[in-house]
Design brief:
The N and C termini lie far apart (42 Å). This protein is of the alpha+beta class. The strands form three sheets. Strands 2-1-10-9-8 form a five-stranded antiparallel beta sheet, sandwiched between helices. Helices cover 28% and strands 12% of the residues.
């Protein structure tokens, strides 16, 4: 079979998705020229892209233009937690912060269940919407003290299922993981700043100097957010969500940084034996659990997805191997990152096919899935939308 460079197909996928001045920045890592040596290539819309001030972004600056990455933040959170605690096993939320009084239903949640989406907290990404309403009100997610007070109030405590019993996509659980990683001694610790400092350490190791938690000073360097097909107004808030949800989706980054994060997770940055062991542990597939119920009981409903630590394993058609992916979505932005599985391939050779998509609006997941499907010549299923 003659070799076919996927570049034209990738560009067509991007151009078919974007409209108006919507920003999109894509890196693809694959064998583009048939030489057998994969390399990274940047893609962006052929149309003009706006920044947050509705000025046109110089195409040469798109790789370093900032986007909000949403729930891909969770994969950073699990990695930062491990760097601080050295394990996920045998520890609980309460054992990480014993100085802070919490109800047993919260303090007893094993960390190993949070990182594999089995915390027992209710589904809170709206897919499907919980008919009972919101588990934790945004007003209680502005600082750690308010969150601790809310947990101790016992509100909605009956909504919490036994940890480890069933799959549920809980942003709040991942935020709690981020907080617990720092062993806060009291509810007035600035855990947001602590996380940002650890993110800077990780970024320095991987050459990701533009990756940080959201702050308003970044907005001028960001692509224009889009609500559907409507651009954000100049001066509109770009805050991705309540402050205490930083661990689940508050990171701001750029395509050049996210390429490094992609290559790191693909094993392409020649990891040390220690880093390889960490990657191998995080990317092992766990047995799929049934989904938690959303009707006031913890009765398991449909079968849940296969997950790693933070990662999902979408099904793919044919026999092209396995894929790990994570998507993200916050108001104005979306993201998708995926790569071909490598830690379970027997030879431990780094992954050779990977994609990261940063997008204004909600375009990243379908674009990322289509590009990965093109690379593998097999359809990658839709991922789970995140917040």
């Amino acid at each position: 079979m003659a070799f076919s460079d996927p570049s034209l197909a990738i560009q067509a996928i991007i151009d078919a998705a974007v409209s108006d001045y919507m920003g999109m920045a894509v890196y693809v890592f694959t064998d583009f020229d048939g030489s057998g040596a994969p390399s990274a290539k940047f893609f962006s819309p052929k149309t003009e892209v706006w920044d947050s001030n509705h000025d046109v972004v110089d195409p040469a600056k798109l790789p370093t233009t900032l986007f909000e990455i949403g729930s891909i933040s969770k994969v950073f959170t699990s990695r930062i937690f491990y760097s601080l605690q050295g394990t996920y096993e045998g520890i609980t939320v309460g054992s990480c912060m014993p100085s802070i009084s919490l109800p047993a239903a919260i303090s007893g949640i094993p960390v190993a269940d949070i990182v594999t989406y089995a915390s027992g907290f209710p589904q809170d990404n709206g897919e499907p919407p919980d008919p009972r309403g919101q588990f934790c009100p945004p007003g209680n997610l502005q600082n750690l003290a308010d969150l601790v007070d809310w947990f101790n109030s016992g509100q909605h405590s009956a909504w919490i299922c036994p940890a480890g019993q069933c799959y549920t996509y809980s942003n709040l659980a991942w935020s709690l993981l981020a907080i617990a990683g720092f062993n806060p001694q009291n509810p007035y610790v600035d855990v947001y700043d602590e996380y940002n400092a650890q993110l800077a350490v990780l970024g320095a190791d991987l050459g990701m100097g533009n990756t940080a938690l959201f702050n308003t000073s970044q907005v001028s360097s960001m692509a224009c957010g889009y609500n559907g097909t409507q651009p954000f107004e100049i001066g509109q808030s770009y805050k991705p969500g309540p402050t205490m949800e930083f661990g689940c989706g508050a990171i701001v980054s750029c395509a050049s940084d996210m390429l490094q994060w992609l290559l790191y997770n693909m094993g392409q940055l020649q990891p040390s034996p220690t880093e390889f062991a960490i990657l191998q542990m995080q990317q092992q597939a766990n047995p799929a659990r049934g989904k938690c119920g959303t009707t006031g009981t913890c009765q398991v409903q449909a079968q849940g997805p296969t997950v790693g630590i933070g990662w999902f394993f979408p099904k793919i058609a044919g026999a092209a191997g396995r894929v790990l992916s994570k998507d993200g979505g916050v108001p104005g932005f979306s993201s998708w990152m995926g790569f071909e599985s490598w830690v379970q391939n027997g030879a431990n050779a780094p992954s050779r096919n990977g994609v990261v998509v940063l997008s204004a609006g909600s375009l990243a997941s379908p674009v990322g899935q289509k590009i990965m499907s093109t690379l593998l010549n097999a359809e990658v299923e839709a991922g789970l939308s995140s917040s």
